[in-house]
Structure formats: C-alpha cells, structure tokens
Predict the 3D structure of the following.
Amino acid sequence: MGTQQVSAPPCAPSSESGGRTPSSASGGPAPSSGVLHARVRHTTAFTVVGNHLTRHRALSLLAIGLAVHIQSLPDGARISIKHLAARFPESEARIAVALRELEATGYLCRSRVRLPDGRIVTRTVSYDRPGAEVPAATIPRPRTGERDTPVAPAAPPPAVPGPTPVVHPPVPEQPPAVPGPTPVVHPPVPELPPVPAPPAVLLPAPTARTVPPPPLPRPRASDPALHRSAAALLADLRRLSPQLTLSERDIETLAPGVVSWLERDAHPDTVRRALTSDLPVPLKHPAKLLRHRITALLPPPLPGSEDLVPPRSGRLVIPLQNCDRCDRAFRSRHPGHCRDCGTGAREAA
C-alpha cells in the first residue's frame, strides 16, 4: 500500500505552487479575459514609443505601424515612398496615405530645402511627441562635409634674424634753391547745371499666351439617376484620398464629365482608379487635376454604341419606283410611268 503509483499522471502546477503564468502590469492577479502580457526587459536594440501614438484614435493601424518603424530608424535612413513600398507588402498609394496622416497629426514634417551645392532635396523630420519642446542639442544638423570641431589657430612662426643694417655716410647739405616765377592762378570755371535725363518709357511686359484647357466632356442625354451617381462618386473620393476633398460647386461642375464615363459603360471602380492613382505630393488644386484626368483619360465608346453610328447627311434621297407599263425602275416621289413610257403616252394622246 505504501508503493507510489508511477502510472498516475502528475498534477499540473498551479500559480500558487510556483507555476509560471503571465500576470497583469500592476503585479496583481491576471484578469480572466483579455490580453495577457509576458514582458521581458530589453537591454539592447529597442525603441521607446509613447502610448499617445500607439493608442491614437485618429490614425489608422498602417499609419501607427509606419510611425513606429520610422522612429526606430537611425538618422539619415531613407524613408521615401518607394523605399517603404520595397520594404513592406503595402502599395505606394497606401503608404502615401499613411504618411499624409502622420503629417496631419504632427508626427512627421516634410519640407524642401536647398543644399549649399544648389541641389533641392526633401528633408523629413520625425517627432516622437508632437507639440513637445525639443532641446536644441537633440535636433540633427544636416551634413555639409565640413568639420564642426573648432580648429586651434596656428602658432606664429619664429622670428628669423634679418641682415645687419648698412650705415651710410651723411649727405652734405645743398645750397638754397633760387626762387622761380610766381605761378599764374586762373579763376575757377563755373560748373554747368546737369542735363536732365530723358524720361524712361515703360514698355508693357510681354505676356505669355495661355492655352485654354479643353472643354469638359458632356453627356449625350440628361439622366438624373446617372448625375446623382456621378456626384456621389466624386464626393466619396475623399474617403480614398483625404486631399481629394471637393466643394459642392466643384462636384456640380465635374459631374457631367463623370456621367460621360458612365454612359460609355465604364465601371465606377474604373473611374475611381483613374482619378485617384499616382497623385502628386503635395496636391494644391484637386479640382483642376480631376478635370484634366476626366477629359484626357475619357475611354472610347464600345463597339455598337450610338456614338459610333455616323450622323445622317442632309441630302434628300428620292426613292425608286417601278414603271406601271414596262416595269422598269426609276426614281420618283410618286408611283407612275417612267420617262419613256410617259412621253409615249403623251404623244399617243
């Protein structure tokens, strides 16, 4: 009876008996639901990120992750859209939208500066906490290729003994000079008044000839349903790209052009892709860009549509008639006899 049963499974260790289980951040017992943290203290290769960024309510998950990645990079690392798109699986359009979100919330600042050699580059500054005062010592300085450490002035060269001066004998005194004739003093010539310069003629500056933009495509027919769909499509563009926020006046102006796309059986997703892909940064005039794309990228009509049917000419076509006597075809507005049969009938009469 005192022999231990080795075939019985051992009991699982509880948390009170020394079993290692994750605990809450406050050191108390672990909650019954939700996430549990198994924390490890980092000593190397880590980045301190504020909760104001990781829990930001106005930023998307892509923007928060991109901000954390940028804050973990050293100074001088490249963070252009193409470099980030090559590093991560997201497209360039989504990365551009995330960068604009970080700029809008103050975590990123991009500006164009001119270098001493004349080149213009984009300088990007990442802020760990927007609005906080940054010490001047922590702001990185651009590299100019010159040394920042002061250079001690060179010591003056040692004095070199010069040659021994030569002593000349004294020059004997000369006899006094004989006074010459008294010079004639002429009266000063009066200065003439300055001649005024002719008035400058201001010529009008040459003005460059401005080429008017092509007209916006117009729909074939007035369809209120298509017009409402086009206006809703234009108003919804700001959800894909915040910089494409249009006013009501711009939407009313551009809606007929979008109706022309829809009349040619263009899918709404095709219209959105054509209007929102490869947007310039920064975008100053969204309405002008959309007007240009709606006009320049208008697809051709599909085969068999009404746009491909040639218009009817204004010429009047006289129909063909069959002669009542010889059954020969001739052109006339009214049925009857041909020319030969009509002439013979008149002569017989």
Q: What stands out?
A: Confidence is low (pLDDT under 50) at residues 15-20, 144-157, 307-311. DSSP finds ten helices and four strands in the chain.
